[in-house]
Amino acid sequence: MEGSSAVRSARERERPPLPVRREEVRSAVEALLRRYLEGRLRVVEELDEECARDLAAPLVDFTLGGGRRMRSVLAWWGWLAAGGTVAGARAEAALRACAAVELLQSFALTHDDIMDGASRRRGAPSSHQAHTDAHRERGYAGEPTRYGESMAILAGDLALSWADDLLYEAFGELPGSEEASRVWRDLRTEVMVGQFLDLRSQACRERSERAALRADRLKTASYTVERPLHLGAAMAGAPEPTVTALRGYGADVGVAFQLRDDLLDVFGDPDHTGRPNGEDLRQGKNTVLLAVGLELAERAGDREALRILRAVGHQGPAVEQAAQALERVGAREQVGLRCAALAELGVRRLEQLDLPDEVGRGLEEFARTAGKAWAG
Hints:
Layout: H1 2-14, H2 22-47, H3 49-64, H4 70-81, H5 89-116, E1 120-121, E2 124-125, H6 127-138, H7 144-171, H8 177-203, H9 209-235, H10 240-267, H11 270-273, H12 279-283, H13 288-300, H14 303-310, H15 319-329, H16 331-349, H17 357-371
Antiparallel strand pairs: 1-2
Helix pairs in contact: 2-3, 2-4, 2-5, 4-5, 4-9, 4-17, 5-7, 5-8, 5-9, 6-7, 8-9, 9-10, 9-13, 10-16, 10-17, 13-14, 13-15, 13-16, 14-15, 16-17
């Protein structure tokens, strides 16, 4: 037995360390996902070749074909921030668990596009739109849109199942798997509640900054930044002060990230964002940007801006008119300043932690990017 342990230890030492820098972590995650998804695709092919071709393969292509992998990078940095190693079987298991967040993202985007009626994603037809187009091209029976949405729902469900599988397969080798499982459960529930709040606010035509921030906190801040960091830290068995600091950073920077996204939706460059400008306005979403614009217009007595912004979402004005009104009353500037302030607050929370140099620089750079709200 002792000889076997010595052999295992030697093999552990021979394994090259895993990367820390953002782009290198991203590449490692993509390579891991490719191997994993190719294996899952083969399983589906054995069950049914048409399902593999028409349902699973497009999901695999979508997952591998775009995205910045920032959630998995943040989860990996959370692991390292809590003392996780960069080499050995546990480090490799931790990276696999971090990669599972990318499949959760594929699930969320696929279902989100159905609910929003979005025809484009990452510069290409969204999942439900692509399946709708395929229905028409192949002359299938039935209603194309319903078929497309049904196929996309299945694709999202498959992505969520694969995310759970990848994560729990990795957890078997990690010290903090029990706590990390709880974080994963909370993360998935928060995504659903945040999406509910988003849908309900649209249906009720709500225009409340407080409600918009609550949805942002659950749907984006938690899912994009706070919980990935928390997941990684939990896998490493992080002490409570570390968890508190990382979650505080994640909440602040995550909200800043969403506010920046609100601005990019209205004022960004479609070639950069991969979607048409003004989707949130056309759908009548209750964003902080819109709520602030209404408040500022009312305070300034700008009746024309009030008329335009109140009409958003129902036979509303052109996106260009709404954008001009938001700019004129100062909503763009105010939300941009909030982005910067939240990002700075998040960076200050990192001062409580003794982080590896590359992790500290990476988290600070990520926060600064979230705080730069003037792109476009």
